Amino acid sequence: MAKKTGVEVSVAAADAIGMTNVDVVAAYPITPQTHIVEHLAELVAAGDLDAEYVPVESEHSAMSVACGASAAGARTFTCTSSQGLALMNEIVFLAASMQLPIVMILANRSLSGPLSIWNDHSDVMSIRDTGWIQTFAENGQEVFDNIFFAFRVAEDQKVSLPVIINIDGFSLSHMIEPIEYWEQEMVDRYLPDFKPLHRLHPDKPVTMGALGMPDIFTEAKKSQNEALLRSKTQILAAWKELGDVCGRYYHPIESYKTEGAKVAFLSMGSIGETLSLAIDELREIGEAVGLLKMRLWRPFPFEELAEVVKGLDQIIVIDRAVSFGGPGGPVASEIRSALYHQDNMPFVTNYICSLAGRDITADDFIKIYEETTSASEEMLKRNDYTIYGARE
Amino acid sequence: MAKLKSEPGWKDLDAGFVMREPGTSREYKTGDWRSERPVVDQSQCIKCGICYIFCPDMAIAKTEEGFFQADLYYCKGCGICSAECFTGCITMVAEEE
Question: Are residues B92 and B82 in contact, defined by beta-carbon separation less than 8 angstroms?
């Protein structure tokens, strides 16, 4: 195993994508974009990566090219952020409904307006229901490792679905972190060649993206939903085998210091690192508090959630997006819904934090913890969610 | 609404709604959409084929006698053939008549 090197997460991600021997990279090369596609362009230009690099004129075209390439049997990657994702929205649905195993890294950034480029989860929540497998990464090593995982799961013939790896814009994408690179031999062992379930080829013609009249559309959607639900078996197996190869084992929900905890924070993405500092401090002063880090967002990990909340009185869900006029942030709404039938359901409190990259520190989380645990149940029930830090 | 000849369940569908058999659109009886059908007065027809050329659904075919006739399984009754016909020999007749 190679030793850890300090490298920008986006550059490491591009190197990992290069190591998958990707066939086609289609991406809009200008803002909002990351160094991921920039470094991939360098790899291709230098002859280090034998791939077709298509610098398209918009994200709508990026996803369209990705769909066409994947349908033709190419290992395909694309990458975007915020407004770019909004622009490719239409085709994001098609990639999932045609079950094309494209891998996309989404460097999560806020959607305008006000015009913003900074990090939160409003972009990915806009495509929550498109049918892609969606994971969140907490640090650079997770991003690197999960690129191999993403291709492995997406291209598994039992799955054949596109995968989004969510990485927090700037706070992950532009950070220099110590990352342990895989040896090429490990990648080759873990990730088999792409053998598509169906492929556009003149020898065996098929129709993709056909018209579905009302008397077949329902069946098509049921089939798509079942495919996403079923994919969890392969997701768990692929994470297990990834651990066997690189020594790091990933789970749909990671528990941190939850032994004997009565209260747990729940978060997705890089904010989990800051939260774990707060947990350390609270544990030191004897508070029974832990942290749940959700790595798998779609398919939603119902069983794992039910397991990790056992014994908890309260969950403080940290959301990074607003569901305007709704019952709370998107993560909290789903946690509440998923636990609705649970015996002794823990009380779910919701804080929407760090919108558009506003700094949030361990002290803020300690304040949230104190605020929540000292409030009466009646007060908590009157307040489904709080947009934290909004000045009056 | 057009109906499928068969009624497959969701488990019968290929992943991603891929169609492995070509030409499945032929199953759709688009003639169901029609509210008026084209009726040809063969005594005035000059067999020029302008209706055949303009039919957007290629639902019109040449008969053995050289006349042109719409296949009512597919003809949606748009009336373009009637509008284009040089001699005015195609009349659109309401389906309930």
Answer: yes
